[in-house]
Amino acid sequence: MFGCNYSGENADSRGIENSTIEDGYLEKHELAEFLNAVKEHGLPCDIEIFHLLAFSGMRSGELCALKDTDFNFELNELRITKTLYNPDNNMRKYTLTPPKSTGSIRKFNVIDIVMNLLQEHIVKQRTLRLEYKKLFDDYHENNFVFAHKNGYPLIKKIY
């Protein structure tokens, strides 16, 4: 994901096979630098999104499909049971589907700092949802963790 570039002459399977897995990951100091930049210059929700992606290994479609009920804050546990499918890049035309394989349905623990960020975010979201319901006649009430003001989930762009 980060730092991987398989374009040009490395675009064939030999280029991919000859690279090491470590080439696709940030070093600890690089990740810290990236997350600091996100904190300083990112958009709303970026800090929670990138911490969760960095420390969970989840796919972007799984992140977009997260709902409040997928988190167990008492156990610091996250449950992945669905992914967001949206081939048209239209927030209103999404489908929640099972992950790529049955093995991708999982529960796992998430470190305290990330769970604390997410718990604060969800509490804030619950308050904002009450305000947004008054602003949008077509408010989409599905309790997505990462949503637009109208309640529809953030979507991963497909180009």
Describe what you observe in this structure:
Helix 2 runs antiparallel to helix 3. Helix content is 38%, strand content 10%. It has 159 residues and is of the alpha+beta class. The protein has helices spanning 13-18, 28-41, 46-56, 60-64, 112-135, and strands at 71-72, 77-80, 83-85, 95-97, 106-109.
Summed up, what is this model?
The chain has 159 residues and is α+β, with helices and mostly antiparallel strands. The chain contains five helices and five strands, in the order H-H-H-H-E-E-E-E-E-H.
Strand order of the largest sheet: 1-2-5
Mean pLDDT: 86
Classify the helix fraction into a percent range: 25-40%
Q: Describe the main β-sheet briefly.
A: 3 strands, antiparallel
Number of helices: 5
Main structural class: alpha+beta
The count of DSSP E runs of length 2 or more, i.e. the number of strands, is 5
How much strand content do the residues show? 5-15%
Poorly predicted regions are 1-11
Supply Rg.
Answer: 17 Å
Q: Which descriptor suits the 3D outline?
A: globular
Terminal CA distance reads 16 Å
Order of helices and strands: HHHHEEEEEH
